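Model: You mentioned two targets. I'll fold them one after the other.
Researcher: Yes, keep them separate.
Model: Target one:
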Amino acid sequence: MITDYSQRLIVQEVSPRDGLQIEPVWVETADKIKLINQLSQGGFSRIEAGSFVSPKAIPALRDGEAVFQGIERRPGVVYVALVPNLKGAQRALESKADELNLVLSASQSHNKANMRMTREQSLVAFNEVVSLVRGSSVSLNGTVATTFGCPFEGRIDEDVVLRLIDAYQELGMHGVTLADTTGMANPRQVFQLVKRVLTQLPASQLTLHFHNTRGLGLSNVLAAYEAGARRFDASLGGLGGCPFAPGASGNICTEDLVNLCEEVGIDTGIDLPHLLTLSRSLPSLLGHEMPGQVAKAGRNCDLHPVPPGNG
């Protein structure tokens, strides 16, 4: 365990995209815009605000243009869009997204289920997006889904992941995300892989995306941080999951992550009380309780009065 927690941990908020994509209820465009605007006030430097995937594939996010065009842009905040292909990238650019996130899977079977093509075909298709963006101020991020395990194939060979990172770098991606799509990672595995990845990729270009499917999400964050990673995806309330991966329950919870960081002395720049207020409003918006813990229990510093007769 390291003892120096002086370096800031950057949280990229993904609830407006990854969080809402599998919700069974339709969230009105105005409510999506309001959520993003409120998140923009919480101290985030990066927010994944929406998706430009086919409306048939992800109907919950079919209003991507209206969302991006309606949000109040806060200076210093990067608004990220998930895009699957050239058509999606064109829509995202027209909607003024600051960064485009492209996804393929380390697992061949998951990539076919998710993208309807092989990994190699995905990389060829990404060339078109890179050419479209070249010369603009828009940045590109490449995500490697199922980095730490696949629900169809099991454990993923680290060398496969490293080769995909090489391919992304050769394409000209500005950043890479390693995603634990179905929460199969463990801290030892995370530490080992992140150490290897950071020999070929600076921490400023690496993001980790963990799920709490099996209760190890925050443990994996600490393991990755101790290995040198500094940027992590998280979702308000613990919302989200991949619709193309069995058992992919929620992402790590943003307010739980920020609370952990505050407890151990890692700076995030995020306003935790503001986050808790937002998280506690989600059940009325979505019609169900959230998996996050701190919104229910309160912070350690939120003390209670001593019961009468026990003074």
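Model: Target two:
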Amino acid sequence: MARNSIPSRRRLACAVAAALSVPLAAGLAAIPAQAAPAQGTGAWNIDLSVVDGDDVNVRFAGGNLTLRDRGARGASVRATGGQGYLLLPERRLGRSVNRIAAETSATLPEGTAVEVDVRGTRDGESWTEWTPATGGAAVLDRQVSTVQVRVGLAGTGTASPAVSAVRLSGDTVPQARAGAAAAPKTYRVFATREGLVGGTTANGHVIKRRDHFVALPSRRGLAPKNAGDYTVRVCRTDNSRCEYAPVWDVGPWNTKDDYWNPSSQRQMWQDLPRGKPEAQAAYQDGYNGGKDQFGRRVANPAGIDLADGTFWDGLKMSDNGWVNVSYLWTGSGKTGEVVTAGDPLNVRAGASTSTAIKGFAAKHAEVILECYVEGETVSGHFGTSNIWNRIGPGHYVSDTYLLTGSDEPVVDRC
């Protein structure tokens, strides 16, 4: 099977992300819902009726997008009201842009909210973070040729917002030249075991026994179901065991704490240093009165939740504790998606199945390919090869389990 034979929104790439939410007061004239015009950079209305399997807890009826279950939310989300989103198909633009604006028409009962997130990409790269806007247009840090929109709804448990239209537009403004390639940001944070087997994550995944994914307290890095667009490398503090796992849930504690971003870009808590979760600051330092964004007393400093398989099998942890987390989408370079029959892929200390197992790479995880070596010939999902890719410090996986878009190496020799 050729590696470039699987079309997917996950294989398109990263240039930038931006988002904007401008809820209009109830009673204002709604933007007329209509079919999107031929793809281009002019303004377009999105089709809110295209609810399907990659959407979470939303429905379209009577001309409005609403929550299907007003109390349902992601397993790790501790908000009191319902949560859900509509994930729109990717839209290839007629030319590159670096600013995206969105306008919504919605009825918002007290306590409810609508947020429109947009991310951008260029062919051959990886998706950027989802970025919610606080008002006005969002300026992207690079040019993008493809955009994707996510319309998020938040209810109160008894009430839901009703979105009748969303209109977007893209244009270009001057920007600074992109910097050199960078390694992903890594921070030491406290990890808790998520558990919650049988529950549903914020991206619609039903949690299985010994599952392999993580939760972070922000939707900016939430991957769609069965995708690894946003993947972390989480390791024990001595780096003796690591797992590469996709971000499929939101939590713990907060839902707008993208602490891995520069302080000035954090959605909330911009007076905290980069890399320090709000829950950690609240627990250790009494920040925000020792409470999370919902006013609850923080009982531990957690900045990441680990699914049971990641916790017990990938890292071989027996209790909550500190870990090193690398947020891979904050780096740059060629990537590959782990494709297996279901079980996670062994990460080896060298280019051979006889070398030590250093941890796992979960199915769907999207890993950065640093370089390649020739080693033991093995047979995997994509045939037989002696090519092994280094995906981290002393971490090697067979190229036959990676969707890279090519049957040949896509990076330089180590």
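Researcher: Noted. Anything on target two?
Model: DSSP finds two helices and 25 strands in the chain.
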